[in-house]
Every structure is written in structure tokens, then in C-alpha cells.
Amino acid sequence: MNAEGVRDRAGSLPREPGVYQFREDETTLYVGKAVDLRSRVRSYADPRSARIRRMVDRADDVEIAVTDTETQALLLEANLIKRHQPRYNVRLKDDKSYPMVQLTDHEAPRIEVTRDPSESATVFGPYTNKGRVETVVKALRETYGVRGCSDHKYANRDRPCLDYEMGLCTAPCTREISAGDYREDVASAERFFEGETGILADPLRREMEVAAEERNFERAANLRDRLETVEVFHGEGGEAVQSVGDERAVDVLGVAIEGEDATVARLRAEHGKLVDRERHSLEAPGASDPTSGPAGDEGVGETGGVPAVLAAFLVQYYAERDLPDALLLPERHGDDEVTAWLEAEGVSVRVPGAGREAKLVDLALKNARRNVGRRDECGMLADALGLDSARRIEGFDVSHAQGTAAVGSNVTFVDGSAAKSDYRRKKLTDQNDDYDNMHTLLEWRASRAVEGRDDRPDPDLLVIDGGEGQLEAARDALADVNWDVPAVALAKAEERVITPDREFRWPDDAPHLHLCQRVRDEAHRFAVQYHQTIRDEVKTVLDDVPGVGPETRKRLLGRFGSVENVREASLEDLQSVPGVGEKTAETIKSRL
Fold it and tell me: Boundaries of each GIY-YIG domain copy (predicted)?
């Protein structure tokens, strides 16, 4: 776009807060936020840095999304940066994002909290506090009966599910409510998210008063707490959040930049003691040039370098994380919208010049400088395998005891660290076939992803515990479901990384090999742990043998692995198990 094209596009934009994207074909080049969309986009007609000028020249369109508040614009910008990874933005290498609420495009719309809304859905948000959003959604469901089940669960039902019995849904699936009445209830939910607080607060208040009159004080207290959340919901960080005077938690940030790589070190102090430290890598195009900051956020190129990195990190990092009571920074970030957001959330922001706080900032800076410019193991793995990214990896393994208590594990690593909240596991059909078990496990994961039933982002890479056979079974499952995600296998014996085309034998000290090993080993540990739990819970024919209680059964299966092996064991072997005497051993042999 030339300068005239930018001015023409800006002239058609509203003077409202929102987010804009410079696009080239289907690619997002840059995402920015604005208090006044028209004024901000118009400023790009005269960019003050060569980097931003190149971005504008490449762009062929500007897309916008209007938001209700400046804070929503701030958070939506962070979500879009994480989703599209635009070349010209400072980008934190993690996958956190802010929660949104969507009402799906369905004959009976579903309400759900999501970080990745459907393009066809009616979407509200983003919001800063997931717990607050979930409280409101539950209150809406209890009041208006909007369904929360998946489309798969909704289809072809012949009777209402448990949500109907619990008063969370009016069961449009079985026509317990007419389509017209259900649509009216959905419209009421929409009106709440559009700002009509009373449409939910009023029925909650009436219900609370009734509970109090009936002396059901516990219910009344719960409703009171829910009502308070609803009444401050549209403030999103105003009345709902108050500053904590004693500053229990303080985060200290240090920034180091080398070329287009940046590192932010974060130290966490609680009650005056350091309790945690971590480093985060960012891609910061042009950050080393103080005249080439993210145009459109602080004005065209007015602020770059450390302030630009700090401003981007603060919003992108604290998505889905609790803000501290105070932030200590090496210098001001210079972003007015970020400042307003932090003030509304009750966070004290300081740039200390001397004393203990200044020493903490110096320590954070030293930590940041130790890491800046280093090639991370995720990047090394991506390069070695020819992938765009290997930041998000999922590992898979199966476990069973000669075909019994078969289970599968699905673990997740993000930026080289285990993300345990994204672990999943599945009980499989009992069979002594590792290849078929792996096929079933991967087909389950892939189908959930393709059908939108898995709320996790798609991974960059799948790591299969096993060799060529397990990898082939996994790839067949992915092809059956048409889920296009690269997969490799890691064989234990020789630590070979197997791809569909070749094998890699990386040095023992290669960081990217260590990453694959951690994923593989964690998938194995998680599978074995679940298998042991299932095995101990499974009722077997041993339960019907007089004299064999739960503890003895557990010892027998632990010793012999399966009921079949117990059946084939000799009397002497059986009696070697603690708790199994001669009479019990003879009974086991006769009954089995």
C-alpha cells in the first residue's frame, strides 16, 4: 500500500478503540491496537522507520476489529499476535492467550469459553480473568439454559443429558424447549455480553433474596458472590480488582537484546524473598534499533528497543497468568494502553533507581544477558527436522500387561517444558498389539482435533515412543483422519530419531536430542502410571477366589503381570508371593 492507499483506508475507519491488521494476501504482517482506529492507521501513511515502511509497502489491505474498551483492544491484540505470529511484531514464544466467549453458529447455539473462537461464531471478549468468565457463563446457563455440550454430544439424542437434570440446559436437543424460546434465551445471553448487566444480575438478585428468606444461607452466600462477579464483569479489572497494600507478590523484569532476539528474565519475590526465576525468549524485529519500534502502538516509531520488548512481554506473558501486586522494570515501557490496563488491575509499576529494588532489577538484567542470542533447543530441533517450529510438542506412548489394562498417554511440552495442564490419557481396548494400540491412540487425538473437540492448540510436532512400526501406525491414523501434523519416533535402544524419510543419530550431548528424550520419557512415565492405576482397579477372576483380597490380588498381578500368568504359575511360585499360603495357592489353581 502506498501513502494514499493508507489514507483512503483510514478515512473509512471508525474513531473507536480496536485492533487492526496489516495483511498481505492471507498473511498477517503486523497487529496493532488503537484507542482511535482512524487516527492510528492514518499515521502509517508517513512511517518513521525503514522497517515499518517495508511492512506498509508489502501490505495490500488493513483489517480491523472494533472493541468495546481499550483494555479489550489490548488483549485482542495479544491473542492475534500469538495466533498469527506476525513478522513485524515483538512475539513472545509461548502459547498463552486470553479467554473469550463464543456462541456457536448452530441451530441451537452452544456457549463456551475458548481461546481460539470459530470464525462463524458470535464472539465476546477477550477478558483478563478466566475464572470470572467461567462464573458468568455458569450463571447464564443456570438462568437461561443455554447448552454447553459439543455438537457431537448434541446430535441424535433421544433423551436429555445430566445438564438438563442439573438445571444447566433446557435440552433443545430433544425439544424440551421450542426452537423459538431457546433462541430468545440465547439472545438474552448476547444482551448480557453486549453490556446489559441487569438481564443476568436481576434474576440472580431475586434468587438470592428468596434463598435468604428461606434461610438457605449457604445458597444465598454463593449467589451473592456470583452476583458481585456479574455486576463488575463489564468493568473487567476496574471495581473487581483492588491493589494489595502489602505487595505480597512482586515480579522483577530484565531485558537483553541481540539483533532480532530478545530475552526477558523474570524474578518472582513473595513477602520479600526470591522464590522463582525464569527466562523467556522473544522475536523482536528491529528492537535493537531505537528508532524502529512497533509503529502504531506508541506512535510511528517513537519507542523501540527495551521499551517495545517490555510492552509486548507484559501483555503477552500475563495472558492467563495472575498479575503480581507490583512490577519492577529496568525502564519505562512507554505504552499508554498498557499503563492504563495495569493501573486498572491495581498493579504498581516502578523503575527503581537505588536500593534493594534496584539490585533486584540488576540481577534480572544479568539473568537476561546470560541467555540472549542463544539458539534454543526447540529452534535447533525445528531446524534439524526442517520444520517451521517445534515450540509445542506432544508425546505419545501406550502401556499394558500382555494385553490387559491397556492405556495410552498424551503429554505436552511448550518451549521445552512440560505443560501438565495439557496432558491427556485414554483407556484403550485390551489387546496385545502395540501398533494397533498406537493407531487407536493417535486416531483418537487426531479426530478430536479435526472435529474441534480438543481445546488445545495443534502441536508443531508429535513424538512417538517406539520405532518404525509405531511411527507407521501413528502416521496411518493421522492420514485416516486427515490431521496434518509432522510425527517422528524415538527408539529407546539406540536413541535413533526416526522420520518417514530417514533416521537421525544425533550426538549424545545434542540439546535437541535431549528435548526429544524428555518428551518420550515423560510420555512413557505417564502411560505406565495410568496403566498401574487401571490394572489395580480392574476386577479379575482372582476377586472370586476365597482368601484373595485386594492386596493379595495386587501382589499376584504385580509379580506375574496377568491372570493368565497366575494360572500358569506353579504352586511353589504362588506361595512365594506374600500373603499366599499353601491352601490359598491350591484354591487359586483349582479355581483358575
Answer: 15-90
